[in-house]
Amino acid sequence: MEQLNERTVLEYVEKTDLRKSILGDGKLSAQIISEGNVNLIFRICNIENGNSVILKQALPYAWRYPDFKMPVDRQRIEYETLSIESQYAPDYVPKIYFYDNKSHVLVIEDLKELKVMREALIDGEIFPKVAEHIGIFMAKTLFYTSDLYLSSGKKKEMVINFSNPVLCKVQEDLVFTQPYIDHPNNKWSKPLDEIVKKIHQDDKIRGEIFYFKELYMTKSQALIHNDLHTGSIMLNEKTTKVIDPEFAFYGPMAHDIGTYFANLAIAYAAQEAHRVEPGTRNVYREWIAESFEETWNVFQQRFLNAWEKDSNGEWPSESYRENYMLRLLKESAGFGAAEIFRRTIGMAHVHDFWTIKDENIRAKSESIALYIAINWINMWKDVEKIQDLSQVMKNSKPLI
């Protein structure tokens, strides 16, 4: 398989029907998009009419980390996941234009008019539709790929088809194992040293996290995005798109929900540095907390609506439905805590914190997120309503 570059990618495009169907006549340009860590990503643009597409190529390694070998099959998984998401939640994913299994190339809609949600939250922007949109996206993609809707045989076929062991192992290590032990991959802001030491010594926290590690490894509940953070969402005030599902597999629904919740909590904590004026900070944090609650409320309502309308008829129990939704909420707290730990004291850090140049201010912000994570993981069994989790955010305080 040839690795494309800014010259050969244009030659490649000319051999497809993209030129006629999407790009049109005129000179083309290719630009490597540096945001990608795993795949090689190009923006192909017609200089004359402005039409453009995003082309992604999977290499047998992470292109930013060549020593990290990865299966090229992840591009098939991304393509097939997007195809399924497009079937059930078409308004919330990019359009697919072209897929080439031999060259491991996927071409999708260019969302250049939208912003990455993580960066927009750092800038203090408000998006009135994102809670509704992400709630609907999660409800539809999770319900319609689960045993609640699919036949038993079809569901089991899909579990096999979406086996993604290498990328799942990345999550098992970086989210559920390494942050809770002394591991060379971990890093953190130095003022957090004493807090990290206490976390590493706290076997109760580690034991609870390992429960969620086991769920992650064994609970094939639905086709989950498996990396549903604010860096995988592009949006503006009216539109929301979920991107980059190459980590997708059949796992626990609450992992997607909790990961998204965690990244809202991270954005909430980071406002300690990004919104210096207390009044402005409090107003923005209030919006984040409201969006947090609305996301769950929309998700729950739309999920239950789908269950009522489109269930395969094998779950005729209102009591079971109530317990199912409560269990999802409880498990979302645990998975959310793991995501926060991973983003603060593990290997994979985020711009919310690492754009804060002053280490002491950064650590103070990170310690607020750790306050949330510690409380969520310790209370998850007792969670009864979404306000139990949002109240932890609202009551959060620096641990240093």
Automatic annotation (TrEMBL):
Taxonomy, superkingdom: Bacteria
Keyword DNA-binding: no
Cross-referenced InterPro entries: Kinase-like_dom_sf (IPR011009), Methylthioribose_kinase (IPR009212)
GO process annotations (BP): methionine biosynthetic process
Documented EC number(s): 2.7.1.100
GO molecular function (one): S-methyl-5-thioribose kinase activity
UniProt keyword terms in alphabetical order: ATP-binding, Kinase, Nucleotide-binding, Transferase
Pfam families: Choline_kinase (PF01633)
Group of enzyme by EC: transferase
NCBIfam families, alphabetized: MTRK
Similarity comment text for this entry: Belongs to the methylthioribose kinase family.
Protein name, per record: 5-methylthioribose kinase
The species this protein was found in: Pseudothermotoga lettingae (strain ATCC BAA-301 / DSM 14385 / NBRC 107922 / TMO) (Thermotoga lettingae)
